[in-house]
Amino acid sequence: MSSAAEAPVVQTRRDGDVLVVSINNPPVNALGQAVRAGLLAAIEQADTDAGARAVLIVGEGKAFIAGADIREFGKTPQPPSLPEVCNRIEASNKLVVASIHGAALGGGLEVALSAHYRVALPAAKLGLPEVSLGLLPGAGGTQRAPRLMGVKAAADLMLSGKHLSAKAAQAAGLVDKLAEGEDPVATGLAYVQELLAQGAKPRRTRDIEIADKPAALAELDALAAETAKKSRGLFSPLKIVECVRAAVELPFDQGLAQERASFMECLASPQRAGLIHAFFAERETAKIPEAKAAQPRHFSRIAVIGGGTMGAGITVSALDAGLTVTMIERDAESIARGQANVEKVYNGLIAKGRMTEEAKAAIMARYTPSTSYDDIRDVDLVIEAVFEDIEVKKAVFKELDRVCKRGAVLATNTSYLDIDAIAAATSRPQDVIGLHFFSPANIMKLLEIVVPAKVAPDVVTTAFELAKKMKKVPVRAGVCDGFIGNRILAVYKQAADYIMEDGASPYEIDEAVRGFGYPMGPFQVTDLAGGDIGWATRKRRAATRDPKARYVEIADRICERGWFGQKTGRGFYLYPQGARVGQPDPEVLAIVDAERAKKGITPRKFTADEIMRRYMAAMVNEGAKVLEEGIALRPLDIDVTFLSGYGFPRFRGGPMKWADMTGLPKVLADIREFAKEDALFWKPAPLLEKLVAEGRDFDSLNKSAA
Ligand code: 3HC
Ligand code: NAI
Question: Where is the 3-hydroxyacyl-CoA dehydrogenase NAD binding domain (predicted)?
Fold first, then answer.
């Protein structure tokens, strides 16, 4: 941002008869108030400068302009508005050219579309990704893009939020010329001179007539129906379609007015607040205490121990990140299966036409299968993914301690086990860390980086570097049973079990959870993951369970019948003939009834709202405890965990953001009300009580930790 002492964020200089307007607002040239004002002033200067025949707009640094300054949303808007700036650029009586060498996104692309001509360099990426922030293009994008690239293609660009390469943007009609090189100024100046030599005049996108309007409207009808189905409660996608319709049906200025009104509606929506929270939170999680002091260790060759579900997925992730991987398994048969698990992923891509045999061969050349630990003496980093059994893991780590070179990072993918104890099995606990991937590990974005007591800071930063290479979303977590995600999951899953035993069917609970925005409910997830996994954990914990705590046995009754979910054809649901979508099972309802009767529970009705109040209160209360114990650094780390690893609806920003938006006093009041039934389970987290007493929210902790 500019201050009196700093250079202005928009600078102008004459290069012959061209006024070069360059934007310099690091890191991404976002269109904050100072940039908007600077751009407006620059165009006014150009229009009154008799010696200037043309204007060239460029961005300094990596980006052209990455869009509106998202940090300004939610605050009182400061003039000039971006639509005003864009209209003024388009109205200029000088030839205006945008030279795009990096991100031209959202408002950044809208600035470019207001220019009269556009040239793009190879690293340019163009898009209107506002939808992923709960918004729509609000500075003429919904009106200008359809005029330049056609109605359907423009709507698709806005609804998908995808970025186009320079080449694709030119093919789509958004860009007039492609150029080689990296320097937007030299390229832009050359293009301006070329245009001037041709006698080019200002050419305004607003004046383009949309061709074949009836066909365009028919396409939009189909798109509206499809969007209503696909957007699952999201507000802005349908508004985008309506605005594009306005581009077809209304004169340009009326279309702009409709776009503005819709943009302001989106801006005011809680979905916008949730999605923008998610955007920043995902960028904050990599900011950890260790980052300043400790440089990551070098790594290029890694080992993965275990080639089962997780080991294979982790191997694919590592290979895709350009690393060299040796996979270790117990015996010849297991390693053959491990390799087959890895190849299956690439064969799937080949079958879909998304990978060639040659590309697969090039990747697999970096993969070595082995049954001998001696083959991993030289690796820089090891990720263990063997059975979830502390004794097996300790034995593996003893072996790693014996063979691995000094300074190698030794990581475990355990879901629940005590990593301090695993580290203690080695003579080098400073090198041992948790890397908790999620299944399928080559697809899921979340990586919990679990930090045991004795680990060295540079091992932590190495883990974050690995996450970056693998394009994962890393979250720093402390050691406890289940870390951040699975620990909180266990508690709200328990709340769901109580609701079920007290009267709601698993199907009603799943429906309420889907209605909140999750893709699946908790019982569907159990069936997908396999009921036996949770059953094994419950058995493991049985000895340490508080005998006073309420325990629901319904899932155990189901597992005792061998009903482990999709893989066995039935679980909480029935999956006839390998169906992937389950059907309610009357026999499961009978089991539920029998369990209620056994405990003398008279079932009562639950509305979807009450189900969600309990489900969310349990999640938030445990989240507060996780924070208090320092297992999560900040509330936003919990939010990101649930957004990236547990299907939490992104438009709600995560559980802690949801709590803030709902109001902490209301959440606490719910917990206190539920505590009248079960004071042990619903014990309010002291941190939640403290925040309510002080009139603060979770977000205040995000800020103070930053
Ligand atoms: N406003 C404010 N800050 C932004 C920003 C924006 N539009 N875009 C990125 N930043 C910040 C990030 O928060 C980050 O800050 P930090 O260093 O303090 O954490 C920094 O810029 C760098 O961002 P990334 O870490 O994401 O850098 P990358 O190089 O990985 O990615 C990018 C760059 C592709 C531009 C990516 O940041 C991005 O996708 N940004 C958002 C683009 C976007 O959604 N634009 C539309 C905005 S809405 C709009 O324009 C409305 C209009 O229609 C009226
Ligand atoms: P899995 O049973 O599919 O695979 C385990 C593999 O380890 C098997 O192939 C087995 O042959 C191999 N193995 C066992 N002992 C070994 C040894 N001493 N040396 C070499 N290989 C050995 O199990 P899965 O699901 O892949 O889980 C592995 C780990 O990942 C566990 O700790 C689990 O808790 C964790 N995890 C699992 C998730 C899941 O959704 N499946 C998610 C996140 C973590």
Answer: 302-477
